[in-house]
Amino acid sequence: MSASAQGVQGHCDPAFGAVREAFEAGFAEGRELGAAVAVYAGDRKVVDLWGGVADRRTGRAWEADTPAFGFSCTKAVTAAAALLLAERGAYEVDGPVTDWWPEFGAEGKEGTTAAHLLSHQAGLPAFARPVSAEEAADAPARAAELAAQAPEWTPGTAHGYHALTYGWLAGEIVRRHAGRPVGTFVRDEFAGDLDLWIGAPDDVLERAAKLSAGRRLNSGSGSSGSGSSGSGGETAAPGGADAPKAVGDGDVLERLAGAYVDPDSPLNRALNNPHPGKGGFNNPVVLRAGWPSAGMMATAPSFAAFYRDLVAGRILRPDTLREAVRTRVRGTDRTMLVESAFGLGFMRPAMTFFTPEAGRENAFGHTGAGGSIGLGDAEAGLALAYLPNLMGDQLSGDLRAYRLVEAAYASLA
C-alpha cells in the first residue's frame, strides 16, 4: 500500500492549517513514507497529525500512537537530564570534569569542563577504534574508553559535532551524579507520563515505525548514501529561497560529498562509529540499549510535549533554560564542515539547524538524521516535533522539517 493511500489523519487547529498543508505536501511529493508532526502553542496542542506507512515491508499503517526513532534529537533530552542535575547542585557546568570524573584528565584533557562536553568542544568526536553495537550497549565502558583517549584538539579551543560520542560524555554526567542510566533518569524525573524512551522496551519496539532508506517513493530514485543505515544526514541545511546561500556553494557541497565517501574523514568517523550493525538503526540491540546520543524512541505528540514542558519551565527553571540555550559556540564545525551553533546540548539556528526568520533569535532544539527535529521557542511559546521514517536526502538538503517549522511560526503570527 502506498504512503499516500494511507492518508493524513489527526487534529489540526484551523489557525495552523498551513502546518497540515506542509505535512500533506510531503506525502503528495513522494518525500514521505510515514511520519508524524505535533505542535503546541503554549499548553494547547494545536497540531497532532500522522500518516503513511510505519513499516514498508509489511504495509503496516502509521497510527496515532506509533513511536518513531529520533536519532540525534535524543541529545536535547540527554542535555535536559544533565542540566537538571546541575540545577540541583550536583556539579558546576563550567567547572572541571575531573572534579567528579578524575580519569577524564588523561592525555591533556584536565582542563575540560562539563560545558565543553555539552557543547561539542571536548575534542572527542569519534572513537579511536571501531566499536560494535554490542560494545556500545556498555555505557560505563565506552565512557571510560573516551576518558582515556587523546583529544583531537585541545578541549575548549574548537567545536566539532560529537555525533555519537556525545552520548557517553554527556551521559556520564547523569550516570555519575544520579547513579542511573540516562533513559532511566529521564523516565523517573520528567518523561514518566510521555511515550518517550531512551532504551525502548520490546513492546514499544513491536509497534514502532521501521526506518527505510532515503529514496523517493514516486520515482524510486535517489541515493540512500549513509542514510541507508541511518548514520548520516545531519550536515545539510534546506535549500530554497530563504536558505543560507552557502548551501548552494559548489565548494561546500564538494567538501561534503568528499567527506561522505572518505571513510577516514572526521564526518564519517563521527557518524558511523559505533556502527549500528545489521539492520542499521532498526537493530533491536541499538534500540534496547538507548544510546544517549541517538537512541530515543517517541511519538511526535510526546516529543513535542517534552519541548512544551521545557518552554514552560516544568523541567528546568527558566533561568537554567536561558543559560542552556545561550550560544556557546558558532562557526565552521570541525566534523560537519559547515556552520553550526550550540548552547549546552541544544542546537541554535545555523546551517545545521535552519529556521525561518521568526525563529532565528530564540529557537533551540536538535535535528536528527533523516529529517527529524524537535524545537522549542520560549518567547513564542512554541514546541514542535516531527518524526519521519523515510531517511532524507543528505547532500541536497531536507526541506520537510523546515517547511513544517516555517508553517508553525507563520501560524502563530
From TrEMBL:
It holds the Pfam family Beta-lactamase. GO terms for molecular function: hydrolase activity. InterPro entries: Beta-lactam-related (IPR001466), Beta-lactam/transpept-like (IPR012338), Beta-lactamase/esterase (IPR052907). Keywords: Hydrolase. Residues 213-248 are annotated as: Disordered. The keyword Hydrolase applies. Residues 222-233 have a biased composition (Gly residues). It comes from the Bacteria. Residues 20-407 form the Beta-lactamase-related domain. SUPFAM superfamilies: beta-lactamase/transpeptidase-like. This is Serine hydrolase domain-containing protein. It comes from Actinomadura yumaensis.
